[in-house]
Task: inverse folding
């Protein structure tokens, strides 16, 4: 019983850390331009496919493919922002939101056209990385090397992000812009550039999540971004949308919550439970667990 | 001003009504002529060509086209050419219902073959039955399908025959008594088959040590597999489809269970099973009514011709699609009519039809009895014959 508890905990953290990577993109973009970027789930899907193509068609090493997918989606995120959101920046928030949903539908249908509706398999882990092995940490408590890799990679990316936001000039400019868009612009910050950086970083993290999910679950599909995107969005709201540590915590909490639902035999309700958590959090603490007071932005 | 507006709306509405009525009348007349002229007997193909169950749909269609070609080369049915009308519902129930409406109202088909899945068949059969058009599903194996009405038939090895035969074999012959049962809860076929498996496991003295549920479309099975691992079963019985089956086995190997295999229904019958599962599905067992690896006198010729035409081995769905068209054609010849209201009775009386997917007899309730059951096992990334079990007619 206890060993199964630990195994499910590790399953939950591995799943949750991929949610967290994607949730960061939602939260960062929202923090700066108050837009829920619904195309973000599709960027995650694109990252997974780009990684797959780099490995299977161009035969590059998985680490190169991982970085390649991040770079590709970084550019893709910036282009999407320039085409679909920038022209609408001064219109109502609803207009940008609808534009985001449009981009999301477009990308998922494009992927359907290119890759077909059948799920595509990632190459076996032992061919691209290492043979998957279970380790016993203590009596019956097992974890696989693949799970450790997923969790460690996500953790490293999040630490780098945290350092970047806290300690670099661009990071400081980002935080300033998210606090007050107009004042930041008056202080000489090139706001357009900061927005591009935000999309670039958020999208590359989603791509990293995509490749990790591809390796971990072994399968990618054109519509994989929709549900995972919604879950990551839930994670971002759970942690407090706009808050970076909140997104990390929210993702992992959601992953663990979902996995314990499966562990106690409620697997048919795992999605319901994930979104149920969201509703409860919104009722009890609308700003999310790490969210600050809602500030009226004028 | 207001009055003017109302009048305008009324006139506009009337105009639209006239146009609609006019068009409706015209098109009805036109299609009436077509049927009367009767240059072809139309059979609709209802299936999925690009969605989750595309590999069933595509293969059924290949078999149907081949049957129609052969019938036409031999002079057609009742002196008319057989034409297969195809559509793709992408495994979407609403789309499938639209397609069946179109088959009946626009194409005026004599019969519909499909869908290969139980879920879509159950969603669409009430439409065909209500319109008095024969719908023959070449593949749906779950419960409560032919009960929908007198125009609904199916030709496939039933789960209620194949499921118990398979459980009997793994429990009594292989000695796998501790079973982990997995059901895909948003899949009608899987839910129905799990019930059959469960009864058969208990009847044969097996024990279900853990029951898990998944959903079609899931990709993360780590939680369910961890639960299964904790109970240490002898075998994993999964009643769902090949996509989830392959992924579940991949997760099973990842979590360190190296020897256990999956046993399932003919929902696992697709190359996608090992394309996704790879080495993890080696040794997995499934049952079906047709095995290309084991040609018999009746199937050898079909397999050879199919290979020459499509340059690959036919599978169960190819064979069932092929048989479905031939069974309908035989009934039309016998009734001397392509009107579904007439040839339905002849179809219902089909007895010992020597198809390539087995010998078919329709019972009084339009359920098929097919013999034999093939137990297949994945070896070197394809199905090979494990055992051939004859079916007792009751």
Result:
């Amino acid at each position: 019983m206890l060993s199964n508890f630990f195994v499910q905990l590790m399953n939950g953290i591995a799943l949750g850390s991929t949610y967290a990577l994607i949730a960061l993109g939602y939260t960062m973009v929202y923090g700066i331009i108050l837009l829920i970027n619904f195309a973000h789930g599709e960027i995650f899907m694109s990252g997974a496919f780009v990684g797959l193509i780099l490995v299977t068609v161009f035969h590059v090493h998985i680490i190169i493919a991982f970085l390649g997918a991040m770079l590709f989606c970084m550019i893709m995120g910036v282009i999407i922002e320039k085409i679909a959101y920038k022209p609408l920046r001064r219109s109502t928030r609803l207009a940008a939101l609808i534009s985001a949903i449009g981009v999301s539908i477009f990308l998922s249908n494009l992927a359907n056209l290119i890759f077909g509706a059948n799920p595509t398999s990632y190459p076996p882990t032992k061919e691209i990385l290492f043979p998957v092995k279970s380790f016993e940490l203590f009596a019956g408590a097992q974890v696989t090397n693949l799970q450790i890799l997923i969790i460690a990679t996500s953790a490293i990316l999040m630490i780098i992000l945290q350092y970047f936001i806290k300690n670099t000039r661009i990071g400081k400019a980002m935080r300033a812009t998210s606090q007050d868009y107009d004042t930041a612009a008056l202080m000489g910050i090139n706001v357009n550039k900061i927005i591009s950086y935000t999309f670039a970083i958020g999208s590359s993290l989603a791509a990293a999540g995509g490749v990790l999910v591809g390796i971990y679950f072994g399968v990618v599909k054109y519509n994989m971004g929709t549900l995972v995107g919604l879950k990551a969005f839930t994670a971002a709201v759970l942690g407090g949308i706009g808050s970076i540590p909140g997104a990390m915590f929210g993702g992992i909490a959601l992953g663990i919550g979902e996995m314990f639902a499966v562990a106690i035999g409620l697997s048919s309700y795992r999605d319901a439970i994930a979104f149920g958590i969201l509703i409860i959090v919104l009722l009890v603490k609308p700003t999310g667990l790490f969210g600050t007071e809602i500030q009226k932005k004028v | 001003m207001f009055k003017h507006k109302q009048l305008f709306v009324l006139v506009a509405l009337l105009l639209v009504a006239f146009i609609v009525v006019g068009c409706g009348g015209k098109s009805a007349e036109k299609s009436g002529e077509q049927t009367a002229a009767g240059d072809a007997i139309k059979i609709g193909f209802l299936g999925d060509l690009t969605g989750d169950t595309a590999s069933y749909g595509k293969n059924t269609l290949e078999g149907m086209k081949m049957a129609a070609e052969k019938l036409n080369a031999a002079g057609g049915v009742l002196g008319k050419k057989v034409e297969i009308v195809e559509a793709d519902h992408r495994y979407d129930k609403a789309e499938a219902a639209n397609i069946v409406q179109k088959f009946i109202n626009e194409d005026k088909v004599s019969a519909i073959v499909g869908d290969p899945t139980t879920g879509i068949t159950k969603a669409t059969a009430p439409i065909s039955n209500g319109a008095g058009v024969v719908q023959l599903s070449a593949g749906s194996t779950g419960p409560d399908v032919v009960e929908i009405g007198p125009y609904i038939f199916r030709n496939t090895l039933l789960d209620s025959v194949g499921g118990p035969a398979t459980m009997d074999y793994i429990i009594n012959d292989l000695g796998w008594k501790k079973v982990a049962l997995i059901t895909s809860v948003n899949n009608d076929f899987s839910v129905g088959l799990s019930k059959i498996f469960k009864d058969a496991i208990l009847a044969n003295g097996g024990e279900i040590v853990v029951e898990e549920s998944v959903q079609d479309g899931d990709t993360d099975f780590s939680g369910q597999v961890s639960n299964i691992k904790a109970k240490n079963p002898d075998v994993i019985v999964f009643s769902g489809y090949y996509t989830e089956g392959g992924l579940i086995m991949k997760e099973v190997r990842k979590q360190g269970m190296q020897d256990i295999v999956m046993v399932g229904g003919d929902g696992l019958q697709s190359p996608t099973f090992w394309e996704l599962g790879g080495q993890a599905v080696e040794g997995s067992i499934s049952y079906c009514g047709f095995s290309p690896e084991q040609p018999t006198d009746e199937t050898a010729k079909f397999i050879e011709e199919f290979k020459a035409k499509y340059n690959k081995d036919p599978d169960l769905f190819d064979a069932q699609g092929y048989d479905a068209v031939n069974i309908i054609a035989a009934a039309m010849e016998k009734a001397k009519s392509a009107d579904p209201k007439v040839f339905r009775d002849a179809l219902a009386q089909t007895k010992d039809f020597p198809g390539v997917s087995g010998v078919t007899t329709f019972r009084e309730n339009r359920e098929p009895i097919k013999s034999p059951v093939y137990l297949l096992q994945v070896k070197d990334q394809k199905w090979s014959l494990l055992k051939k079990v004859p079916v007792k007619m009751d």
